[in-house]
Backbone:
């Protein structure tokens, strides 16, 4: 059961002593630290003091009774660790920590995701790694595809979701359309052989095209690309999705003849 407790600490020494008991969560539950963000945070704290609360997870889940784990504020904490007590206390009369008590990994997951919709948003790879760590099968399958193919993750998610909506993916409700996604990747590989220039834009554009025109005949489309690649792809610039789709959509006869 979730419960928030506000912990007020009177001095910099008390604050530092409390934070010395707090450890970072393993794996994808915390972002990687960014040195530039730490430097900026250090400058801010030295100028105006600590102006926000660090959020700490209090749980027995990881095998330690009432264990304390950093949930939000890791760059602030890293900056504080580089300061003396005198520097830290210069602009603060007291310090605040929010302890969040959670009972299981799913609750932690939901809490972290909700925090990252109001703070610096997670990228798709953060969400992917997060749900892989929770053992969700669909994300594990996509994770393997991502590392095997080295393709752009945005395009891969669209291919295996079947649309450009990422709401379900970010909420942990990803239902992988394995066969459809595999067909799209196969079509892209064959389009490259037919003359398409391999870029991130060409991959994402092909995925969106396949999602929009699910019933087109891929074999005939590949023949058309090979016969006149410049009709669908801007010469010298590789793939341009709008150019590609505009030419296909205005060619109503082509679409009608090539639907299954």
Residues:
């Amino acid at each position: 059961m979730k419960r928030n407790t506000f912990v007020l600490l009177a001095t910099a020494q008390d604050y530092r002593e409390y934070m010395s008991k707090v450890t970072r969560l393993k794996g994808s539950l915390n972002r990687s630290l960014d040195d530039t963000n730490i430097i900026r945070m250090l400058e801010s704290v030295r100028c105006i003091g600590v102006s926000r609360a660090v959020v700490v997870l209090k749980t027995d889940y990881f095998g330690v009774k009432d264990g304390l784990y950093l949930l939000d504020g890791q760059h602030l904490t890293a900056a504080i660790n580089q300061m003396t007590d005198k520097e830290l206390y210069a602009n603060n009369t007291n310090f605040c920590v929010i302890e969040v008590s959670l009972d299981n990994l799913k609750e932690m997951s939901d809490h972290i995701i909700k925090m990252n919709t109001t703070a610096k948003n997670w990228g798709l790879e953060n969400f992917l790694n997060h749900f892989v760590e929770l053992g969700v099968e669909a994300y594990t399958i996509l994770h393997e595809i991502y590392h095997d193919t080295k393709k752009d993750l945005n395009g891969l998610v669209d291919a295996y979701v079947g649309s450009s909506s990422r709401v379900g993916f970010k909420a942990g409700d990803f239902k992988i359309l394995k066969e459809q996604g595999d067909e799209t990747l196969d079509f892209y590989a064959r389009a490259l052989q037919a003359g398409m220039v391999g870029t991130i834009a060409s991959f994402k554009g092909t995925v969106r095209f396949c999602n929009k025109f699910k019933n087109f005949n891929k074999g005939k489309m590949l023949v058309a690309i090979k016969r006149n690649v410049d009709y669908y792809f801007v010469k010298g610039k590789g793939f341009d999705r709008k150019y590609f789709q505009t030419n296909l959509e205005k060619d109503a006869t082509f679409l009608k003849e090539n639907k299954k």
Notes: The radius of gyration is 25 Å. The CA atoms of residues 201 and 239 lie 6 Å apart.
